[in-house]
């Protein structure tokens, strides 16, 4: 068996020059050596010399002269076609790199807790899709604990949420946005809908659907009730699934404390065919402030900055509306 290693890039190894590719592509377009030479910025003698060197390298004529200029041979046409393809590919690569530098192309990995994903991220992505169609976005909706882990593992570029309780805050940087209001959501024909001056005691007489014990939204709801002298719900169905929560309150008389942005999204758009209503109770319930969380030592890429700035603009509008 031969020990010789096959070699690629044969023409490059023989000394193919980029200027020869440019000249051959121009020759294809102009049909004249003088015009091709002027197009690439060289003298005609220099162009003739480069073409002669290229023919010697290939081992076959690349063009034939006639009264009106030159005509490419079959070999010349093959090489000229490849030269044009190569040059066009390099131009496209240069354009893409310029877009990367300018933040109009690239991939952004975003995490978000549920409420802000609908209130802030959804309209921003709709705007970004129109303004920066070459930007690819991946969205991960989780709790802040899991999003923080993903951020520190470099699986996310940033997330919308909170720095987890008890976590070392030094690896994080956060642009605060504000509190996340909570609403008590029920089905449209729930017995408490359209009742005047309902109380939390009346709400607590029904099943509640909440996160499993320890979840931030559940802790917020339980703290809110206890601080106001109420007992906790007697029967709680625990789930992390928003979809299952919505399905359950659609089919039963259960009450679900959910981010107000989630409630409004499904009510205002009749999303997923839901028929839901917010109870006029505990209207001041809110989860602690959230924000745009990044790695403290990270210098965001231009494309990430583009999305972050859109989110900051929408967050500022949100602050004006709620302020």
Shape: elongated
Fraction of helical residues: 40-55%
Distance between the termini: 80 Å
Helix vs. strand class: alpha/beta
Low-confidence stretches: 1-8
How would a crystallographer describe the biggest sheet?
Answer: 7 strands, mixed
Number of domains: 3
The CATH topology label of the largest domain is D-Maltodextrin-Binding Protein, domain 2
DSSP, total strands: 11
Determine Rg (CA atoms, Å). Answer: 32 Å
Pfam family, one: HTH_1
InterPro entries: HTH-type_LysR_regulators, LysR_HTH_N, LysR_subst-bd, WH-like_DNA-bd_sf, WH_DNA-bd_sf
Keywords: DNA-binding, Transcription, Transcription regulation
Protein name: HTH-type transcriptional regulator GbpR
Description:
This protein has 323 residues and is of the alpha/beta class. The chain has three domains: 10-100, Orthogonal Bundle (Arc Repressor Mutant, subunit A); 105-178 and 288-322, Periplasmic binding protein-like II (D-Maltodextrin-Binding Protein, domain 2, 3-Layer(aba) Sandwich), CATH 3.40.190.10; 181-287, D-Maltodextrin-Binding Protein, domain 2 (3-Layer(aba) Sandwich). It contains twelve helices and eleven strands. The strands form three sheets. Strands 3, 4, 5, 6, 9, 10 and 11 form a seven-stranded mixed β-sheet that branches. The chain starts with 9 loop residues before the first helix and ends with a helix. 29% of the residues are buried.
